[in-house]
Amino acid sequence: MGKLLIRGADLMTMRDDTFIIHDGAIVIEDDKFIFVGEEKDLPQEWEYDKIIEAKDQVIMPGMINTHTHAAMTLLRSYADDLPLMEWLEKRIWPVEARLKAEDVYWGSMVAILEMIKSGTTCFADMYFYMDEVAKAVEESGIRGVLSHGMIGVGPNGEKDLAVGRQFCKDWEGKADGRIRTMLAPHAPYTCPPDYLRKVLEIADELKVPIHIHLCETETEIKNIKEQYGKTPIQLVDEVGLFDYPVLAAHCVHLSDKDFEILKKAKALGIAHNPQSNMKLASGIAPVQRMLNEGLTVGIGTDGASSNNNLNMLEEMSTAALLQKVGTMDSTALPAGECLRMATIYGARAIGQDAELGTLEVGKKADLIIFDFSKPHLVPRHNIMAHTVYSAQSSDILTVIVNGQILMENREVKTIDEERVLFEAERTSKELLRR
Ligand SMILES: CSC[C@H]1O[C@@H](n2cnc3c(O)ncnc32)[C@H](O)[C@@H]1O
Ligand SMILES: [Zn+2]
């Protein structure tokens, strides 16, 4: 691959020193940025294989969805308006028990299509039949941090340990480094301490992080306290979880003591899922306090069955609005901070901030380009606020991952869109009939 030049755009780099660059240019060679700056500073002698003219357009790093169950697109709008445990136990788990590998492939493909079209370039996924998710990531060109979900209670606990371990061995670093892996014990209420200890032994062996649901609902806190006499955070801390890199989804209900534990964790990322937390009426995560206290917080959508889409633009604006109303403080979680959560903080939460999350020379070339010549993006007082509060996914023209153009002028180049929609519809119907 030669050099790709994108010029004429405003850049939101997400770097602390030069957050916004006007009349900017970006040059990509192979999978990396080799120039990010003002167009006037481009080296004169460089020649390009392709030039994208991006006047009236805005470029930012690709968004990182830090918590998904991609194939749950198949269950979109299948079970709505329920609390978490009733939703899981009565509606979702019975159907998931009938899942086949092929379902997960098409469910993940349609999820990836939706994510690319709404500006996500990397997603952290926890589900079943993860070889299929990995294949979908490999073929589509997106980036994924993938993990086999393990349920310690019930008949598959031991098998899940073996499958999760083998998945990491098979896929870590594959697809030109776009696939990274984690181990995923589902939650403290499905993975008791002895089981978690076994997961940590594998994490020790393979040096991969842990992806887990933590402190999502009041019911979870109450049940764990009744069973063990401590909060879920205190429980998993005693098992040694926070001696390992952890990506913790939710963390909605935290005590002061929990905060102290989290602040001491070795490498913790929290995935905040505001729409899922609202829809399941789980509560409002104390995100502004987490950030104030130095915790790393990314944004996630959770699965499409509790959201009901995978749109990170919506998730950013919901995160901002929810913190404001939750704290009764309109200065809480401003737009710039939401953008960081969706990019560089998300990269930190998955342990990849050295490679992802900013437009910066030497980093992996993952970016998205917005068309700002739209009525709802005029006048251009503040491009950060526009991106969080006004932009829509249809404004995203171009998506690049690892230097490869996945979507150009809204045409996804790596996926047969019509086929994926057809197969996802077909497999979801078959799954529900099975
Ligand atoms: C073991 S694979 C993942 C497992 O998690 C379930 N799930 C989806 N959304 C949530 C959520 O918000 N909290 C807890 N568990 C969730 C999914 O259906 C799979 O069974
Ligand atoms: Zn989840």
TrEMBL record:
Residues 58-405 form the Amidohydrolase-related domain. Binds 1 zinc ion per subunit. Its cofactor is Zn(2+). One of its GO terms (molecular function) is 5'-methylthioadenosine deaminase activity. Keywords: Hydrolase, Metal-binding, Zinc. InterPro entries: Amidohydro-rel (IPR006680), Deaminase_MtaD/DadD (IPR023512), Metal-dep_hydrolase_composite (IPR011059), Metal_Hydrolase (IPR032466), MTA/SAH_deaminase (IPR050287). Coiled coil: none annotated. Signal peptide: none annotated. It is an enzyme of class 3 (hydrolase). Pfam families: Amidohydro_1. Substrate binds at residues 96, 186, 216, 302. Zn(2+) binds at residues 67, 69, 213, 302. Its EC number is 3.5.4.28, 3.5.4.31. The keyword Heme does not apply. It catalyses: S-adenosyl-L-homocysteine + H2O + H(+) = S-inosyl-L-homocysteine + NH4(+); S-methyl-5'-thioadenosine + H2O + H(+) = S-methyl-5'-thioinosine + NH4(+). It comes from the Bacteria. Transmembrane segments: none annotated. Belongs to the metallo-dependent hydrolases superfamily. MTA/SAH deaminase family. Catalyzes the deamination of 5-methylthioadenosine and S-adenosyl-L-homocysteine into 5-methylthioinosine and S-inosyl-L-homocysteine, respectively. Is also able to deaminate adenosine. This is 5-methylthioadenosine/S-adenosylhomocysteine deaminase. The gene is mtaD.
